[in-house]
Design brief:
The complex is a heterodimer of chains A (326) and B (334).
Chain A (H helix, E strand, L loop, with lengths): L5 E14 L9 E14 L3 E5 L6 H8 L7 E6 L2 E2 L5 H8 L2 E4 L13 H11 L6 H14 L16 H14 L4 E5 L7 H18 L2 E6 L2 H7 L2 E6 L2 E7 H6 L4 H9 L5 H5 L31 H5 L5 E4 L2 E3 L5
Parallel strand pairs in A: 3-8, 3-9, 6-7, 7-8
Antiparallel strand pairs in A: 1-2, 1-4, 4-5, 9-10, 10-12, 11-12
Chain B lengths: L2 E14 L2 E14 L3 E5 L6 H8 L8 E10 L2 E2 L5 H7 L4 E4 L3 H4 L6 H13 L3 H14 L5 H4 L9 H13 L5 E5 L7 H18 L2 E6 L2 H7 L2 E6 L2 E7 H6 L4 H9 L39 H5 L5 E4 L3 E3 L9 H5 L3
Parallel strand pairs in B: 3-8, 3-9, 6-7, 7-8
Antiparallel strand pairs in B: 1-2, 1-4, 4-5, 9-10, 10-12, 11-12
Helix pairs in contact in B: 4-5, 5-7, 7-8
The chains are: A alpha/beta (326), B alpha/beta (334).
Chain lengths: 326, 334
């Protein structure tokens, strides 16, 4: 699927948010949302980014899109470091990077018709200046995402959740991007509709040679759609490798616990399945624990884990994990 | 085991300007003592309205229970006075909701919210209620319960709030707990904790549970029996093992086939249910699933199939073609 050249390289990305005194003079703090993340995505590839809420996966996606400017680190897109560019220099690059959000309802303007929503980026980026030509292109995009020509005149509230997500996808496709950040694109949809949208994303990838960063918490969906997968915990990548290695032979205890927590729709299998139920909860990124960030919940932690931060190191070929015991 | 709750021919409708929404349309099911039963379905199928109907909390005047019976321990809840119904809510039937933050009072301490029910329903003195509340928080795995009782909901994490909801639901030793999407708002690892806790507690205290969810995986692990709902009706019911191993309605089959599974080899392509769920105001004549169904025959378009027994052990399905859903045919489509 991928031709090997990295489209995107993220190097030591850091994003900290300052919680400052504020109106009531509360204590200031530093939220380490993304704390030294590095990975690359090759052209035509899908990288799954999984983790629980607050692990920094969405912020990572937003930093790549430059919707948040990174605190430090590099975001190299086609070889250029986006973190150093100003808004003017970024504009032509934004065309090549699009985003699909979790909730298609709150990300579509309720006062615009489907046709206007999809035509807007074409006009803004000056891609199709001619009106009639734009209308033709909108119809073409609608058919790419499985909507009908008559949907052009509908408003978002007149569509179902699945249809709205299709509109969001058509809008992203309109500017012919090379990278799409899909941020939980199916988790707000009904089960029977999720599979439709996943199939659509895969078809479009094959048809247009798209590259995806697929941010999600559902490990079954991520396994289906991703070529490689990165697992995040508390602002850091704890494991990254190709799909097969991650799911067949996970190395990090957190990955193992996540996989074990996914319920499988088969009562007979569930009854005899061994489960690692993690105790405790994800610590606050305001005061991450010293040493390995996972050690307070880790079922196999040893004394060293409390003091020593594990590097994300290659343990098997192309399989990296941040665990002293891996 | 005796029947604890029996819902018979329940109809809950909503009257809107554009027409009548038959959210729950002639639905019958039951829960036995100490049993865990699931209502499964997608948004708008009527599963939450079913639960609200049992508690008589359907929002009027638009929403109304227009027919049927809800027999709980032999009494029809629909015939109770509002006063009697208040005694049932919380005291005899506990409730757990999806988003604990919106179902807890943000300006009352956790302790106050727990002791209120104990004082009202069980008539405990404040000191006694406080002691019991501490015990309950400890039981649901909240560390340092004494201190936690003095805190407010916003000081609790999502998982802790859901533990607190479970403590509230259990506080008056009800015989049934209604849990509406109890883990949907939670992270995977916390979801596993909460489900294990609910299962453990329901066994320990012999409480029956009705779990309402869209997640087929959650149901597989925790339910004894499963009711599958579609467009306001139950379209299939059976023991969890039987239903998953041998689904006999095209919708159930479609749901099971559409989700990627970690225990199976990765498929090249997912097998979705095509189309959209129907508009409840414009339901087609005949079976509501027909427009999305790969098995439909002429009869499906004109006549809605009743729930019929398809296998021993109470496995029922509402499908004219229930006996013809052989797997070879579905396999050939992929």
């Amino acid at each position: 699927m991928s031709d090997g050249a990295p489209l995107l390289q993220v190097k030591n990305l850091v994003k900290h948010f300052h919680l400052g005194g504020g109106l009531f003079g509360g204590r200031a703090g530093l939220v380490r949302a993304v704390d030294g993340v590095s990975f690359e995505i090759r052209r035509g590839e899908t990288l799954g980014l999984v983790g629980e809420s607050g692990c920094g996966k969405t912020t990572t996606g937003r930093c790549i899109l430059q919707l948040e400017r990174p605190t430090s680190g590099q975001v190299l897109f086609e070889g250029r470091d986006l973190a150093t560019l100003d808004e003017d220099a970024l504009r032509p690059i934004r065309r090549k990077m699009q985003v699909i959000f979790q909730d298609p309802y709150s990300s579509l303007n309720p006062r615009m018709t489907v046709g206007q929503i999809i035509a807007e980026p074409l006009a803004v980026h000056g891609i199709v200046a001619d009106r009639a030509e734009r209308a033709r292109r909108v119809r073409e995009l609608l058919s790419h995402v499985g909507l009908l020509p008559q949907h052009v005149h509908r408003y978002p509230h007149q569509l179902s959740g699945g249809q709205r997500q299709r509109v969001g996808i058509a809008r992203a496709l309109a500017v012919e991007p090379s990278l799409i950040v899909c941020d939980e694109p199916v988790s707000a949809l009904d089960v029977s509709i999720q599979a439709q949208i996943i199939n659509l994303l895969e078809d479009l990838q094959a048809q247009f040679g798209l590259t995806y960063l697929f941010v999600a918490h559902d490990l079954s969906v991520v396994r289906h759609i991703s070529d490689r997968v990165a697992v995040m915990y508390l602002g850091k990548i704890v494991e990254i490798t190709d799909r097969k290695s991650l799911y067949d032979s996970p190395l990090h205890p957190y990955t193992k616990a996540l996989l074990s927590a996914v319920p499988i729709p088969d009562p007979a299998l569930e009854a005899r399945r061994e489960r690692v139920v993690l105790g405790g909860e994800v610590p606050s990124p305001l005061s991450p624990p010293p040493g390995c960030v996972f050690h307070p919940r880790c079922p196999v932690a040893i004394d060293r884990c409390r003091g020593e931060v594990p590097d994300l190191r290659e343990i098997r070929p192309a399989h990296r994990a941040a665990c002293l015991l891996a | 085991m005796g029947t604890l709750l029996e819902v018979k021919n329940l109809k809950t409708h909503f009257v809107t300007r554009s027409g009548v929404v038959r959210a729950v349309d002639d639905v019958s099911w039951d829960v036995s003592e100490s049993e865990t039963v699931a209502l499964v379905g997608e948004s708008g199928c009527g599963k939450s309205v079913s639960a609200l109907s049992i508690m008589r909390l359907v929002a009027g005047p638009a929403g109304r229970i227009v027919g049927g019976q809800i027999r709980f321990k032999g009494r029809d809840l629909l015939r109770l006075s509002e006063e009697e119904m208040r005694h049932v809510r919380g005291r005899e039937i506990g409730m757990i909701f999806q988003e604990p933050m919106t179902s807890l009072n943000p300006v009352l301490t956790i302790g106050r919210q727990l002791t209120e029910g104990l004082e009202i329903h069980l008539g405990l003195a404040p000191a006694e209620a406080r002691r019991r509340a501490t015990e309950l928080l400890g039981m649901v795995g909240i560390p340092d319960p004494e201190r936690r009782l003095r805190q407010y909901p916003h000081q609790f994490s999502g998982g802790m709030r859901q533990r607190m909801m479970i403590a509230m639901a259990l506080s008056c030793s009800p015989s049934l707990i209604l849990a509406d999407e109890p883990t949907t708002a939670l992270d995977v690892t916390i979801q596993a904790q909460i489900l294990e806790l609910m299962k453990d507690l329901s066994r320990r205290f012999g409480v029956a549970m009705l779990i309402i969810t869209h997640n087929l995986g959650v149901v597989a692990r925790y339910a004894d029996r499963v009711n599958v709902m579609y467009a306001g009706r139950i379209i299939e019911r059976g023991t969890a093992r039987e239903l998953y191993a041998n689904p006999r309605h095209p919708y159930t089959l479609g749901l099971l086939r559409s989700v990627p599974r970690l225990d199976e080899p990765r498929r090249a392509r997912l097998d979705p249910i095509e189309g959209q769920p129907p508009d409840l105001m414009r339901l087609p004549a005949g079976c509501a699933f027909t427009p999305r169904c790969g098995f439909s025959v002429e009869r499906c378009r004109v006549e809605a199939p009743p729930l019929c027994e398809v296998n021993a052990g109470g496995h029922v399905s509402a499908c004219w073609e229930a006996d013809n859903l052989d797997r070879a045919r579905t396999a050939s489509r992929t």
